[in-house]
Amino acid sequence: MPDITTPRPIPAPATRTVAVVLAGGSGQRIGLATPKQLLKIAGKTILEHTLTIFERAERVDEVIVMMNPGFVTDAQSIVDRAGLSKVTQVIPGGTSRNATTQLALDALAHLPAATTNVLFHDAVRPMLSQRIIEDCVTALETHQAVDVAIPSSDTIIEVDDELITDVPQRSRLRRGQTPQAFRLSTIRDAYAHAWEDPGFEATDDCSVVLRYSPDVPIHVVAGEEQNMKVTQPVDIFIADKLFQLATSATPELSEDDYERQLSGRTVVVFGGSYGIGAGVADLAEKHGARVFRYSRSATRTNVANPDDVAGALEQAYTATGRVDFVVNTAGVLRIGRLDQTNPAEIEDTLRVNYLAPVNIARASFPYLARTGGQLLLYTSSSYTRGRAEYSLYSSTKAATVNLTQALADEWSADGVRINCINPERTQTPMRTRAFGDEPAGSLLSSDQVARTSVDVLLSDLTGHVVDVRRESLALSGARTHEKEREAAK
Questions:
Q1: DSSP string computed for 255-304
Q2: Which of 106, 125, 161, 445 measures 20 to 30 Å from 349, CA to CA?
Q3: Are 201 and 282 contained in the same domain?
Q4: Site annotated as Transition state stabilizer: where (predicted)?
Q5: CB 148 within 8 A of CB 227
Q6: 0.85 cut: is pTM over it?
């Protein structure tokens, strides 16, 4: 009897997604000798921020960097130092956007066009969300070309010789962003036809498909305002501020995450006897860290005294052989007119609120450089604008923010991170002494700020000012409860 078997279906070949990061800009438009993608924001170059986004994207398999030809070595150093394993090539870009895209397509010539997706993204858009990447790759399952765009909030006018010739209907207009995503076969074919046109010139890749492969519909994915392009000098300032306020970048860690990342680590907490400092120390100790708490009240440690700070760090290092995290929550809050504040109080405020962070940073650096650790400082919402009768407090907290940003830049090559927590009004003994009892529910708890602080310590953030707000914690809690309910089903 013949052996009759049902043929097994042949599985479809897996699709590979490659992100091409376009980093060929020169920085001339903002008056720089160095390409803007190599400027540092929040402790890292813009290029590194952008590459890290794709490194973490689950549906991106490979990353290629198209770099300004004079800075290929710089880009490769960034890739190597950051351990960006998905980056397979750093290639010199061309003299135009179109030439650079073609060079990228040449670099992808070994991949099968039918089963390869390619995402072209501007290196100077360092705040691209994972949602946009996911939406682009998903859209390529049913479309051959995909653009990212946001509605225009401004009225767009057409002008000829400084006179308005048309005012297009705003509801139909969008502002284009990147990535622009294609099936490799589609973008290859479009460029093959484009190069046959002697007058070929385009500012982006979707317009190449639109013009030279007109039968291919281009799907539009919703972009985001924060996915901005750093082009003008003011953009650097805006991007820097957005990174400072990027609380969404703070990881949401589980108890298991704490246990895994804190066990065996050494944490030094200045101001660790009460309030936020005690909360950080308790949480770290609970999950296996060796915690050393220092304060005036418990250990007679004066953070304004460099010798006391150096002695505390040496004691922790001698006992455990390492220092992974240093936290400084020590501070003083005195309210009153500056002209009515005596010199001794002024000097004490400046020493504790600003010179102490400086001393702690200097003394901590050698230890943290050995472990790739992090220093965590604290500011106040008053740092953004000096307030009457808060002149010393507000100005020292603003100085702490600037110190954080500067040291993140200085220390980046050494692998040492530094961040600053900016809590909303928090129920601490220092605040109670200044303001007395306040309505229940109007303040954050010390433990809430402490948990966010530990989350930041265990992150790879550097140079960030991380806001802690009651409403953001409530949303985070709601998301956590939802995840728990889903897991329980």
A1: HHHHHHHHTT-EEEEET-SSHHHHHHHHHHHHTT-EEEEE-HHHH---TT
A2: 445
A3: no
A4: 29, 36
A5: yes
A6: no
